[in-house]
Structures are given as structure tokens and as C-alpha cells.
Amino acid sequence: MKRMAFERPTEHYDQRLYQVDEQLCSLVKQRKEASNNNPGFPPLEDIAKWAEKYQLYEDQLRSIFDILRNEDDFRPQVEPIHFQKYLPVHKSVENDQCLYSVTFIRQYSNASVVNFNIDWDPDEEENSLYHRFWSLYLGEDYDCRQTGGGGTEGHISYHFIVSPPLPDDISGLELVFSETKAPFEKDSTSLQIVISIE
Q1: Looking at the record's lineage, which domain of life comes first (predicted)?
Q2: Is the pTM here over 0.85, yes or no?
Q3: What is the CATH number of the domain that holds 137?
């Protein structure tokens, strides 16, 4: 999904807030470093206590902490440009009456696009696979972002943009797909599909 450009919502800014706002930025950075960029979410009782102590709204604080928890959502997004070629993969893994596969990777000058397919017998599947979410992990050197997908009865496909682009020789690469509890979440369920490329 392409992120919309942000426009400043108002021309007004009270310059007396400049030092306070800069201090807020410094505290956000300090918080990120102290948590090793994995802050979790404060207990709701603590948020209620802080709201009362500092005369703030609980909903406002919950929103702030939710935004701070998902910093990766705000990283600049790479949009693939200049298609170069397809890298054939043709690998699949069967798990619990579902076939998970990657047939190819599209190479662009600035990124790669991985299509992750799930196929199942719709008559055998009681719970819809449409309401599941996935993340892709290729190692610390790569940013993997799900950008959408779609499907029909018995088939669904997810698209992941990977940057920087993968090498043309992808032998030895492991594509680790983890089912997550919600879109763009880090917390995964126990279901993990590993597709190894020889």
C-alpha cells in the first residue's frame, strides 16, 4: 500500500513549545534505545495513573504508546522501480492441509518482490484463511514489508517488498514467513513457514 504524503495540518505553531517538543524527541530516542527498539505496551493501569497524575486523557496516551510501539510502520517505504527479471523459485511446503509456495521473485533496480501463495481445499477448511496476516523475515540486512494481496476460494497470495534487492543468486536463501496476530505486527502465532532455496 502506497503511503499518502503528509501535509502539515495547520500553519499555526506556538514557538514557546520548541524546546519542549525537542525534549519530547530526545525522550522518544532515549526510550527506543533503552528498549532495544522493542518497547511493548505499558499496562493499562499505569496509563490510567499517568493520565490522572499529568491531567491527560487515557485514550490520548494509549494512542501515543501504540504509535511508539509500531515504529517500523513509519520507516520510509521503497516503491519498486525498473523491473529487471524474474528469479525462479518453485518451492513449496505443505502444512496442515495447506500448500504454501513461492514460485518466483521479481527483481527491480531498488527492491525485490516476493509473492507468497497459500492454497487449500475450500471444502476442508473450516476457518477462513482470509483473516490471517503474515510477515516475512530474510535477516537483519533486509526490510520486508507486506504490501497487499488477494485471492479466491481456496487460494490467496501476499506480496512483500524487500529492500535492498536480493542478489541474483538466491541459493541458500531462507524465506521465513510468520503468521502474525494483526497486520504489521511483530508478535507472531506459532505458525511459521520456512521456504529454503537450494
Answers
A1: Bacteria
A2: no
A3: 2.60.40.1230
